[in-house]
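Hi! If you just cloned this repository, the fastest way to understand the data is to look at a raw example. We've pasted two of them here, unedited. The first protein comes first, obviously.
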Amino acid sequence: MPLVLLCGLPCSGKSRRAAELSAYLREATARRVVEVGGDRGLGVERSLWYGDSRKEKELWGALKAEVERKINKEHVVIMDSLNYIKGYRYELFCLVKHAQTPHCLIHCETAVDVCSLWNQSRDPGEQYPQEIFDALVMRFEAPDSRNRWDSPLFTIQKDDALPFEAICDAIFHRKAPPPNQSTLNAILTAQKTTVPGDLISVPGANVKIELAHNLHMTELRKLRRQFISYTKMHPTENIGQIANMFVQYINRSLR
């Protein structure tokens, strides 16, 4: 099932948007929704973790692991966290590609002065210390829809209503990302210990490649391009079968 990422400055309204989307999905689509509550859910003391780069990396690792555990065929996972570094968002993109599930990004684009006021209005234990707040604002890397890991992108101002139907279309009716380079590398690696006639397993697929002859990267890339063109002409809503479809396509092409 899909992953929805919230992204924005500290105190930009991400948790409110996550709650709105969660309520809509449960009521309007009867989908099972799991929220990954970011630093709040992990009971993180912001002045301690965001003021120490090592601890922040530990926090990110814990959040990523929680998302990975919760992605399955039954749930929509909503990750309510800063997600303010593009490298972090790219790591999650790689994760959903491996899981063969769509994702989208909701950017809460709230002005810095408004975020600062909202931060100061919180209970002391919920506030970001001002120096931490300022540092996070300076380090924030805004999403760009031209980047595949930031797309589809929904940019929301503080007074906007969430475009629920467009978000649902993005996560339920868009096909999953096609097999990536790591899939091809897995095939090449497996060939080192196999001979023509053997069966090769591919991550994410329960159908195996019937190895008629050794495949080189050039040939695999060509098959991948052809498969992507094929899926555009024959789209499927069963995104969990993309990996199996790719293997089946390779087997047909090698005969």
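Ok, and the second one:
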Amino acid sequence: MSLTALHSTAVIYRRILSQFPQDISLAFAYGSGVFKQQGTSQGQMEKNMLDFVLTVDDPVTWHTMNLLQNRKHYSILKLLGPRMISSIQNEHGAAVYYNTLVPVDGRIIKYGVISTESLIDDLMHWKTLYVAGRLHKPVKMLVQSENGKLRAALVSNLKSAVMASFLMLPESFTEEDLFLQIAGLSYAGDFRMVIGEDKSKVANIVKDNIQHFRILYSNILRDCPQVVYKSQQGQLEVDKSPEGQFVQLMALPRTLQQKITKLVDPPGKNRDVEEILLQVAQDPDCGAVVQQGISSIVKTSSITQSVKGIFTAGMWKTVSYSSKKLMKMWKGWRRKPSVSHMS
């Protein structure tokens, strides 16, 4: 992408953000309208919907202002008022409220609103892995306040993604293997990957954006005592001993540790988490157990958030949005060779 194109996209994002109430603690753009994905031309990118997440300290005040400025963005739920909208945002699905298929400045956008508190909780503990999972992948940061707790949570989320991926990878692997594993975390167990999302989505995200992934993760990999990172060759070797895996398991976010515990410990046994994780660390299927734990978090939040989306978007927009997703999935299938050489 040329420098002028980069500059003009930065201006587009700024102009779009300027249309919203300004008390935002974190804002980022993501998805195929922002980062080039394999099989997408520059022209297609410019037609793709732009996706944003806006993090706000006080959702009630923010929605009050946004309803005054941008009432048309909301579905019929606007009639319930800002307090009700905020409680739908916070108490259902993944604590995000989306307005979708919104025309702004000649582009079609979708934006999700999440409270700073809910975001920090998801980044630290992977309660839903919804926005935390988005932030495992490169995003275009547009606003970032000086909130120290939020900054620390953003780094913690990346470290957790690395640890979970180590547990699911073999002893030695490439940078690309690691980034594919990380990018796939938030799609594990997502029912939309069965119906509605392009199956080769994870590979498309990683292939053209290796450099962006490096920028996100290279410092963490260099400082991590669990891994030998040969950055010149793009090769990594991780400690797969039971002791090494135990350290990695102990570093995972709390919700994932609880899910793993539930999977391994029969009810009524009530052993402590540390004891169970020590057992998992010695299991040859350790990686599969971690994968199952992640899937169970993602499955719940992807279903509840999608059901919520039907109401927050309204029926017509939901049908329109879903049909576009199904078209993308169909095109993904068409691109695939008829005989797969992969086992």
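That's it. A detail worth noticing about the second one: The two ends are 36 Å apart (CA to CA).
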